[in-house]
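Hey, I was hoping to borrow your eyes for a little while. A protein chain has come my way and I'm curious about its shape. Take your time with it, there's no hurry, and the full record follows here:
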Amino acid sequence: MANPEKTDRRAASSDSSRLSEDRFYDALSSVQRRRVLYHLLEEGETPIEELATVLTGWVATERGTMGTPADHTTHHLALHHIHLPLLAEAGLVAWDRESGAVTPESLEPLVRDIVRRSVEASRS
């Protein structure tokens, strides 16, 4: 019969290592966050204002519409309050809230490939 104390320690250890993986997968679960990473991988450091413009244009192109100032504001707020905090917490970007600069962290080649393939596939 299994020792319950050992099982509890293994579960706790497994949960802690999975936590960082969960953050990583959570960060990549959003098409908007993958697009942000894609842009950063292609262009390097980018101000949050420019990222909001890029996302606004991306969505407008998909819908066949024009992006509006309200759309830009919506994307900026989502970047500031949702997307960038999650990406930063997962260790995928560095975000300087003072200057607004967002920089991609050093990513494993496999992660870069997954981000690129995911975004490029959605363009087809």
Remarks:
- The longest strand covers residues 101-104.
